[in-house]
Amino acid sequence: MKRRDFMKVGSFGAAGVTILPSHIFGNKVNKIAPSEKVNLACIGIGNRGGHITKSLYDTGLANIVALCDVDMGAPYTLEVLEKFPNVPRFQDFREMFDKMGKQIDAVSVGTPDFSHFPITMLAMSLGKHVYVEKPMARTFQEVELMMAGAKKYKVATQMGNQGHSEANYFQFKAWKDAGIIKDVTAISAHMNSRRRWHDFDPNITKYPDAQPIPSTLDWDTWLMTAQEHDYQKDFVNGQWRCWYDFGMGALGDWGAHLIDTAHQFLDLGLPYEVDPVYLESHNPFFFPLSTTLSFKFPERGHMPPVEIKWFDGINNQPPLPEGYGESVLDPNIPPPTDGSKFTEKLKPGKIIYSKELTFKGGSHGSTLSIVPASKAKDLASNMPVVPESPSNHFANFLKACKGLEQCRSSFEIAGPLSQVFTLGVIAQRLNTKLLFDRKTKQITNNPLANFLLQGSAPRKGWEEYYRLA
Asked: pTM (2 decimals)?
């Protein structure tokens, strides 16, 4: 189905076959007393989704009232199922909401990137608060609709980039407010670990051959709004991140952990140009072995233009400033779900260049330092006090559900950041420079790239979620 036809009959035209619960419209957000726990349903409980489930529960602020995963018999779901043996479980999130909607205050969404959108839109339309893993969604337009939905339904929303509730967030804000971080002109963000698709053949000419669907897997629900694909083991269990049809590559996986605070506190918004400076082994199916992307942002008030350069690939590392020193990995970063380890010399991080100072930082909650060290000593007496975080990212969300705090990575904040990543992925996929109009939110120099802001229409029967914003 062409996107043009979908927009006519799917989004704005007469309704076709509906798959949504019949009672969604008119739902109000549940009121949760400060003394009560949040009744939480967890959708996607394997791998990273399982970590999210346990982290939310470990805050002591939530009751786990429902578990949902498209493969309840897979080994990666067993740990969570064994931890909550008496909690109702479902394979289809729509059935879960139909049967238990009134008992649920909030949901966590720990599913693949492409499936965040339909689950989140339905949950918000039912008045449920939503914690969704980063990035928010796979396409620019889906993120746009999720931001509109959050405003319409007035629910608490949190994207799962944990560093936004840790030391880096509060340090960056304090240093920006104090004028330590000012006049930033360039940022290098780097993630040089081996990725899953580095084992793939970059000369492929088709998707891998179909395999038998595991008896425990609901493959149709796994696909959700995505285009039709036969089951393949290299599409599931984290392998989805490799493919343009399902994931967002290294940029979508790590970008939110590296440039989130700079994006927010430097008020970057959306870029006006995205350029794939370097792509190693580009192909139309999965991500390059190495990528360098240039994102250009205009002046904002009294702040100068900024260029962010993104580097991924094992040997594709940014130049380091004099006095950079050692690269250190934050011990609080969750280990990769495929069991690999960070072995490269340059750990994930960023380098921030201003007109007067240069800063280096790691990933997630890792704090910044000034380089060279001698310059940092000169400024030591002028450094502001950095407040401690009142709550980690999971507790911040649950407290926001109860009206006690504001989500620090709400869709209003995380949405434009996620849209930056969607633009980067389009530039990777087409191997072409994009010129982007920040006012109209259109790509002006490439019709195909502009089409990919929305992408192909969802599979038949899944159009309804695009009407909920």
From this structure: 0.92
